[in-house]
Design goal:
The protein is α/β, with parallel strands linked by helices. It is 38% helix and 27% strand. It is built from 14 helices and 17 strands. α7 (195-208) runs parallel beside α8. The longest helix is centred in the last third of the chain and has 24 residues, at 400-423. It is globular. Residues 484-492 have low confidence and may be disordered.
């Protein structure tokens, strides 16, 4: 390395970066540090370093000579990727068609506990007036039990919020559980719900220990809506993901905004959950803590491009945490745990296909991830979803796991359609969709959920709206029907 500098680190790009990625990274950094835009003397010095890095890496001969003096790159991650598609071959049609792709990631290595970093969990708790009584008591009791699950090297912080936020427990080791429990028991109730206040303060606590090698997670607990600050919350979640923080959310009762929490958490690779009992709350907290101690790869993002005209219409994470994920690149698909597969399903809408087209790329790019047990090193794996195209393919059935996943996804989307139709006043169509959903649930043996659906179908005919509790039970009940699978295997 020239003068001991890591030019790839300076430009924040991997060693296998393409010339276009090198150029893009350089110009983005140049805009930030050019003396004309940044008068800070330190910025000018950094700008000169950026120029040196670009002059070497953009020149093939200089880059080759420079790389000959670099230490060996880190070993590729021990991951297998199983891919399967709804069709082996895509029929050449003069009209749009849907194609499904299922990806399953599995770690093929054994965990090395000695190399695993500690964790920092920040609990952000709604203490608005609506949380009074049984709800806040349930939260307090479960949090104090959660403290006992932490290891001595871990950290915990607790923030409460209503229309303002308060740090109840600053980032601390779980060494004095009695003091922590006393602080939790002193939480008082009052005020409205402004999630932005709690989110901002909670993320600040997680940044306090940023210099330490830790896995950082924010868990939001709320029973209400936030008003007017949603977009700022989304921007904050995006920045949190960039800084290695995952946001999960728990909705208590029936008045919280599930659509908002779904989007907020998906931006960082997290998920939301519907809490109906103290057992649900403890199980979620315990499961999240256990997953943090078994992560092989985290912050997995799928950076991709598609063939012009191909649209990714839907994306769902099926395992280990079920929930919708964003469809715009980069997609935060979640974390890969030792002993568990990370499974996600994509739905693509294809345009009419040209007569001379022999293969179509659905999505091509890279999975970018961190390996916590390897000093948090960032690695990339190529991932390309594509299928051959022919004019007259032989009839075939999709693989059984694809059929099952598509079937359950269709049930989830039926309740989405019904919710939209109720919101627009199309009650008769919403009722038909709910009755159809109940019929399919009964045929699959899901009697309790089918009963809830039929009750809501009768209710919306009378009141022209869902009950808040029933609406969430149907949404999260149909979401849980999605299952993992895999078939076409790639060894890396």
């Amino acid at each position: 390395m020239t003068g001991g500098l890591d030019y790839y680190h300076i430009l924040d790009i991997p060693r296998d970066a393409t010339p276009e990625e090198i150029r893009t990274a350089y110009f983005e950094l140049a805009r930030l540090y050019h003396p004309d835009a940044n008068p800070d003397p330190a910025a000018r010095e950094h700008f000169l370093i950026i120029q040196d890095a670009y002059s070497v890496l953009s020149n093939p001969e200089k880059r080759t000579e420079y790389e000959s003096r670099l230490p060996p790159p880190p070993a590729p991650p021990e991951i297998s990727i199983n891919l399967q598609y709804s069709r082996t071959v895509i029929p050449r049609m003069d009209e749009p068609q849907l194609v499904y792709a299922l990806a399953e990631l599995t770690s093929t290595s054994e965990p090395d506990r000695s190399q695993y970093p500690p964790i920092h969990v920040c609990l952000v708790i709604d203490r608005s007036t609506s949380m009074s009584g049984e709800r806040i008591d349930m939260v307090k009791a479960n949090i104090t039990q959660f403290f006992k699950l932490l290891k001595p090297q871990d950290m915990i912080s607790v923030v409460t919020f209503s229309d303002r936020a308060e740090v109840v427990i600053p980032p601390s080791r779980p060494s004095d559980l009695v003091r922590m429990e006393n602080r939790i028991n002193m939480i008082h109730i009052g005020g409205g719900t402004e999630i932005l206040k709690g989110l901002e303060t909670g993320l600040t606590q997680l940044k306090v220990a940023k210099g330490l090698r830790m896995l950082r997670q924010l868990i939001l607990l709320t029973d209400g809506h936030t008003y007017g600050d949603e977009q700022v919350c989304f921007e904050m979640a995006t920045k949190a993901a960039y800084n290695g923080i995952t946001i999960n959310a728990l909705g208590l009762g029936n008045e919280w905004n599930d659509t908002f929490l779904d989007r907020l958490t998906s931006l960082s690779g997290g998920n939301s959950a519907f809490i109906t009992s103290p057992k649900d709350l403890y199980n979620f907290l315990e499961q999240k803590l256990r997953s943090l101690t078994t992560i092989y790869a985290r912050r997995i993002n799928f950076e991709f491009q598609s063939t012009p005209g191909v649209e990714m219409r839907y994306a769902f994470r099926i395992n280990p945490d079920v929930g919708p994920i964003q469809t715009n690149s980069p997609i935060a698909v979640g974390d890969l745990l030792y002993g568990k597969s990370l499974v996600f399903l994509f739905e693509f809408m294809l345009p009419p296909l040209a007569k001379d087209l022999e293969r179509i790329v659905l999505a091509s790019g890279r999975l970018v991830m961190e390996l916590p047990a390897k000093e948090g090193s960032e690695v990339r794996l190529a991932l390309k979803l594509s299928r051959a195209v022919t004019a007259d393919p032989a009839p075939e059935m999709p693989p059984a796991p694809i059929i099952e996943a598509m079937s359950h996804l269709s049930l989830y989307r039926l309740q989405e359609k019904a919710r939209l139709e109720v919101s627009t006043g199309n009650i008769s169509q919403a009722t038909r969709h709910l009755q159809y959903l109940a019929t399919h649930l009964l045929s699959q043996g899901n009697r309790e959920l089918a009963h809830d659906v039929l009750v809501e179908a009768d209710l919306i005919q009378q009141s022209r709206q869902f009950s808040q509790d029933g609406e969430k039970r149907i949404k999260y009940g149909t979401r849980a029907l999605l299952l993992p699978s895999g078939s076409e295997q790639i060894k890396l």
